[in-house]
Amino acid sequence: MAELADRPFPPGDYPVVVVGSGPGGLQVSSSLGQLGVNHALLSEDERPAGMFRRFPFFQRLITWSKPYAPFDRKLREYEWYDWNSLLGEEPEHRGLVPEFMDGTSYFPSRVEMERGLEAFAERRGVRVRSGCRWESTRPDGDGFVVTTSDGEYRCRALVVAVGMTEPWKPDIPGLEHVPHYVETERPEAYADRRVFVIGKRNSGFEIADGLLPWARQLVLASPRPAKLSIVVASVAAARARYLQPYEDHTLGGGTFVIDAAIERVERVADGYRVSCTGTTVPGDLVFHVDRVIAATGFGTPLRDLPDLGVATFYQDRLPAQTPYWESASVPGIFFAGSITQGSIGLKKYGRPSGSASVHGFRYNARALAEHLARTRFGVTPEVRTMERDELVPFLLSEMTHGPELWHQQAYLARVVTFDPARGILDAGIQPLAHFVDTSGPDAVAITVETDDRNEIRPAVYCRRGGTVDEHRLEGNLLHDFETAEHRAQLAGLLEGYLG
Predict the structure, then answer these.
(1) 467 beta partners
(2) What's the CA gap between 120 and 26, in Å, rounded?
(3) Beta carbons of 152 and 11 less than 8 angstroms apart
(4) Which DSSP category does 198 fall into?
């Protein structure tokens, strides 16, 4: 009973309630705490780390953390080389995942990632009420009542950070009898078996890569051609970490990666019969296999939020969101973590954000905490003022080294405003879509973009008199945007603000 009494955040009233102790929940809680916003962090899990306590199934991540990089681990600039650690304001809270890596790969293992997240929570002092299951939500005046297994919590703002953790399957006859990715067995169970994997995104290629030493034959299928990160220059594609099955297919090694719509899956005496219709190459296909795995993705466990009016899309797998990750239909409900990929952004050149992964959504969570503090609770983070001769070097440095701009290209931006009374103000990191689509004082937003030729270039968005104009600076082979050429280009664009 004493242990129960010592658990933090008993039921009651809180300005903010955050649900979920995966990396999204931990980051938003840490950032809220840094800003002095009182909140409760609740989780059904007994320990933090979310899905990294179990997945990826084959134990090695697709995002890297470089133990040795051009910048010290405790510097902000190092975050560009460390895609997995959460964000701390103090040096001792930064770059934690590499501390636990054994040097065998620059892709952390699942266990190394889990330890890094646990260390962040412990060192940063992020407290979690564990074993507290979120059950339902209802409106209550200008806020909400969150009902949990421990009792009721009242809050003005609810932040849902439960991840895209609900196994999802499309409506295909017979697929209900096929195990999902989360039900994958130990590799030995597939030894000398013909395995059909439905899905050609990261989970599908992960399964295929892990089973290459075991399966007699592998087939991966889905209607659209596989998108490969090294071809489309986007993290929202199958990552190089898992592409050995694709090379096997390309070189005729016996693995097949095909474009086909799955029409039905039938159990037969010796396994499964999978009936397909070719898409890129038309025609009917029938596969007789021993095992089938549905690597068909995940949805968000929203509980009863849709009944409250929370709009969803993507086959009801994601909540629709504003640029600041608020429900597009129910004000006061916000999202953090991988769910924030539901805030689409500008999607320049057709490229999605990096919000599906830690390296992207950790910055969303920090920006969300600042937004909540400023707009809901009157807490204004300290704003840096700049002299005229500091502005161009500052912005060029951010273009070259700012990790937020590189990890969330054309999605997050560094914003500087021009206030007649206060001068030049660093307004921090903001969603680019918010800057472009809302009115405000004269300001400049900078970001980094990969264009339709896969060239990485800085972009400058200039707002004057309520109108936003877009400009792109020249690229650089070594991504150095602090050259004399870039300085002259940017100074010319800012002349109207500084003249």
Answers:
(1) 464
(2) 8
(3) yes
(4) E
3-class secondary-structure state, position 346 = coil
Q: What is the pTM of this model?
A: 0.96
Query: Which pair of tokens denotes residue 115?
Result: 């330890």
Cα 487 to chain center, whole Å?
32
- β partners of residue 415: 428, 445
Return the closest-CA partner of residue 286 out of 246, 258, 250.
Answer: 258
In 436-477, DSSP assigns E strands to 443-450, 456-464, 467-472
- pLDDT, tens digit, for every residue of 373-427? 999 999 988 899 999 999 999 999 999 999 999 999 999 999 999 998 999 999 9
- Characterize 363-386 residue by residue with b for buried, 16 or more Cβ atoms within 10 angstroms of its Cβ, and e for exposed: bbbbbbbbbbbeeebeeeeeeeee
Tokens describing residue 123:
């060192």
DSSP label of 87: P
In terms of phi and psi (left: phi > 0; alpha: psi -120 to 50; beta: otherwise), the region of 199 is left
Q: Could you give the angle at the alpha carbon of 124 between the alpha carbons of 32 and 376, nearest 5°?
A: 5
List b or e across 250-259, with b for residues whose CB sees 16 or more CB atoms inside 10 angstroms. Answer: eeeeebbbbb
Determine the 3-state secondary structure of 151 from DSSP: strand
C-alpha 17/C-alpha 383 separation (Å) is 27
d(CA 58, CA 447): 35
**Which residue has tokens 């609810």?**
158
Task: Tell me the pLDDT tens digit for each residue of 94-119.
Answer: 999 999 999 999 999 999 999 999 99
Biggest CA-to-CA distance, the chain = 80
The residues that bridge with 202 in the sheet, in sequence order, are none
Domains of the chain: 11-165+299-376 (3.50.50.60), 175-296 (3.50.50.60), 384-498 (no CATH)
Look-up: residue for tokens 């089973």? Answer: 211
Contacts of 91 (CB under 8 A, 6+ apart): 74, 75
